[in-house]
């Protein structure tokens, strides 16, 4: 049975930065309040032309370059997102087309901020079963497009960005060791975008009421988060046959520094064992864990052989954790330039559209 190794990683955030001082010009808040209640100092927000798919493509190409894997070798692409480009088609299909992953099946997964953990687990299980060899998992969000910039309860929290992992099959033991996934839909109303779906399709009335924006009961979400983080971490370690002493680094969902500190207290682990970078990015939802992972690697806090726990929570409610033995790229002499594939993918995509047009004319659909 092959093991599912994490062999590539990449992240990207939009250029535009919004500081706490910028926010204090927009709503009644201030830098001191935001820092002390959340730990956030600034966040990145998407500019014109930047979307969940465009960020996902950039992060993916970086991850493929690290793994030395061609897009054409991918079997599966999962995009975890709560801010897809459209209700359909899936953002994953747009990414598949734009990177030229010609043989990959692609779909979106929605489990809010926990989504990246769920998606990595799904990809790992597919590899472990022998069904596939190479997978790309992306967490990508443009939450700034769904934030009410007049609501100080939510607009201070969120940021945009994307992160990606490549997972590959290998006979060498290691990689994803275990994961737990949990949900409690009874808390669905605590963090929700009420309209724009099939229950309340967008209308003048839903827009008038602001139902297309994020609504959140911050205190309840805070209470829920502090309850589940430590519990999920212990569960996944137990199912991997490991203990807290084995853990080199915990990479938690970056929502609020106080939530992470509560998890550290609950686990009786020093806070230094946790990766925290929400001060510069805010809560990028499902992208926060891969973004923090890339920075942990760049800062030498995560190295081959380390045991790392990813743990998160979010709307749904959802929560989960995953433990992995960190691998790094599989040994390979070859050089891969995934960026080239973007160029050829564009031409391929255009040709496919032209062929479809010609077929339409030949079969009489465009007469
Ligand atoms: N600036 C200044 N004051 C603010 C404010 C802001 N941006 N937002 C709220 N306040 C005020 C409140 O109105 C309240 O005033 P009051 O006491 O006069 O009513 C006071 O600050 C305290 O509000 P409270 O909601 O109790 O603050 P808090 O300490 O719970 O912090 C959150 C609020 C949102 C930061 C915190 O609850 C949180 O992080 N929750 C989890 C949210 C989350 O992680 N969501 C994403 C999940 S993936």
Task: Give me some keywords for this one.
single chain, alpha/beta, Peroxisomal Thiolase, Chain A, domain 1, 5-stranded mixed β-sheet, 11 helices, 13 strands, 21% strand, binds coenzyme A
Description:
With 367 residues, the protein is of the alpha/beta class. It has one domain (3-325): 3-Layer(aba) Sandwich (Peroxisomal Thiolase, Chain A, domain 1), CATH 3.40.47.10. Helices cover 35% and strands 21% of the residues. It contains eleven helices and 13 strands. It has helices at residues 20-24, 31-38, 52-67, 91-99, 115-128, 204-208, 218-239, 257-267, 278-281, 288-298, 338-362; strands at residues 3-12, 17-19, 42-44, 76-80, 105-109, 134-141, 161-170, 175-183, 191-192, 215-216, 249-252, 307-314, 318-325. The protein has a five-stranded mixed β-sheet, sandwiched between helices. It has a four-stranded mixed β-sheet with strand order 8-13-12-11. It has a two-stranded antiparallel sheet with strand order 2-3. Helix 4 links the parallel strand 4 and strand 5. Helix 3 crosses helix 4. The N and C termini lie far apart (54 Å). Coenzyme A (COA) is lined by residues 29, 33, 37-38, 113, 152-153, 156-157, 191, 216, 218-219, 221-222, 255-256, 283, 314.
- Name of the CATH architecture: 3-Layer(aba) Sandwich
Instruction: Give the % helix.
Output: 25-40%
**Quick check: average pLDDT?**
96
Number of domains: 1
The coarse overall form would be globular
Q: Can you write the helix and strand succession as a string?
A: EEHHEHEHEHEEEEHEHEHHHEEH
Characterize the biggest β-sheet.
Answer: 5 strands, mixed
Quote the CATH topology: Peroxisomal Thiolase, Chain A, domain 1
Low-confidence parts: none
Gyration radius from CA atoms, angstroms = 21 Å
What is the CATH class? Alpha Beta
Total strands: 13
Number of helices: 11
Q: How much strand content do the residues show?
A: 15-25%
Q: List the ligand species.
A: coenzyme A
- Our measurement of the CA-to-CA distance between the termini, rounded to an integer number of angstroms, reads 54 Å
Strands side by side in the biggest sheet: 1-7-6-4-5
């Amino acid at each position: 049975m092959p093991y599912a190794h994490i062999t590539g990683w990449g992240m990207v955030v939009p250029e535009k930065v919004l500081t706490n001082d910028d926010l204090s010009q927009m709503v009644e808040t201030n830098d001191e309040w935001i820092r002390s209640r959340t730990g956030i100092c600034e966040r990145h927000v998407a500019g014109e032309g930047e979307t969940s798919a465009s960020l996902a493509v950039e992060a993916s190409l970086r991850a493929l370059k690290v793994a030395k894997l061609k897009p054409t070798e991918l079997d599966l692409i999962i995009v975890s997102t709560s801010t897809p480009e459209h209700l359909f088609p899936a953002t994953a299909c747009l990414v598949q087309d734009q990177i030229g992953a010609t043989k990959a099946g692609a779909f979106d997964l929605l489990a809010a901020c926990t989504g990246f953990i769920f998606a990595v687990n799904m990809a790992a299980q597919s590899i472990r079963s022998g069904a596939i060899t190479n997978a790309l998992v992306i967490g990508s969000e443009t939450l700034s497009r769904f934030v009410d910039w007049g609501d100080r309860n939510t607009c201070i929290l969120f940021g945009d960005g994307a992160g990606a992992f490549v997972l590959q099959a290998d006979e060498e033991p290691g990689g994803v060791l275990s994961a737990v996934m949990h949900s409690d839909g009874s808390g669905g109303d605590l963090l929700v975008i009420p309209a724009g779906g099939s229950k309340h399709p967008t209308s003048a009335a839903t827009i008038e009421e602001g139902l297309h924006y994020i609504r959140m009961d911050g205190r309840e979400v805070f209470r829920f988060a502090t309850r589940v983080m430590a519990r999920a971490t212990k569960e996944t370690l137990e199912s991997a046959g490991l203990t807290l002493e084995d853990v080199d680094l915990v990479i938690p969902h970056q929502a609020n520094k106080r939530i992470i500190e509560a998890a550290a207290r609950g686990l009786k682990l020093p806070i230094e064992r946790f990766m925290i970078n929400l001060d510069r990015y805010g809560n990028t939802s499902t992208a926060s864990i891969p973004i923090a992972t890339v920075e942990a690697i760049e800062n030498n806090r995560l190295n081959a052989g380390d045991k790392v726990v990813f743990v998160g929570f979010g709307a749904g409610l959802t929560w989960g954790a995953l433990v992995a033995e960190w691998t790094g790229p599989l040994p390979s002499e070859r050089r891969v330039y995934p960026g080239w594939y973007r160029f050829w993918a564009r031409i391929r995509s255009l040709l496919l559209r032209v062929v479809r047009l010609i077929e339409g004319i030949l079969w009489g659909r465009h007469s």
